[in-house]
Amino acid sequence: MTRAWSTVPTDEERYRPLYARVLGLRFVNPGGVLCFLFFEGAAALAVLLALAELVSWWAVLVLPTAVAVMVKLNDVVAEMVVRTAAQVPEQERDRFRRQMEPVVGRARVPTTTRTLD
What we know:
The chain crosses the membrane at residues 23-49, 55-73. The chain is an all-alpha fold and 117 residues long.
């Protein structure tokens, strides 16, 4: 994978939150508060649900992992959108050229005879 598509400059990479660096996020750039909510918030919610005996204790591991997978999936989708959007101007330019080709020919106009009554 090349870094050419990355939206985060390499010199700013070390100032990003640990959560974003561990997941290798390149297009989604969550701040510190959002990273805190993604990881610690999901873990706290899982602990509360486990203490209330609504879920088993495995949820403490599964819920933060599921949130991390969804965040990474969102980053992958964002990458696909950026790459597709980069190709649109070229595709639209070709489509415009095809539509604007001059058409030379004659159109047949039907003639109707009207009678005046």
